């Protein structure tokens, strides 16, 4: 049972890390898009 719990904990941790990486990537892309728009139109 301990093996299953640790496996589940590892999977949860991987999902959380992936989610955080995705959020950071979207934020980074959003900032770059804003700056490109600002340079082109303002």
Give structural notes.
This protein is mostly helical. 95% of the residues lie in helices and 0% in strands. The chain contains 1 helix and no strands. The longest helix has 40 residues, at 2-41. It is rod-shaped and about 60 Å long. The model has no long low-confidence stretch (mean pLDDT 93).
Quickly list its features.
rod-shaped; mainly alpha; 42 residues; 0% strand
Structural class estimated from helices and strands: mainly alpha
Shape: rod-shaped
Mean pLDDT equals 93
H/E series:
H
Distance between the termini: 61 Å
The percent range for strand residues is: under 5%
Largest sheet: none
Q: Low-confidence parts, pLDDT < 50 over ≥5 residues?
A: none
Instruction: Give the % helix.
Output: over 70%
The number of helical runs is 1
Report the C-alpha radius of gyration, rounded: 18 Å
Q: How is the topology of this model organized?
A:
Blueprint: H1 2-41
Short description, anyone?
This protein has one helix at 2-41. With 42 residues, it is an all-alpha fold.
């Amino acid at each position: 049972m301990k093996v299953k719990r640790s496996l589940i904990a590892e999977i949860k941790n991987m999902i959380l890390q992936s989610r955080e990486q995705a959020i950071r990537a979207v934020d980074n892309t959003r900032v770059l898009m804003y700056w490109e728009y600002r340079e082109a139109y303002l």
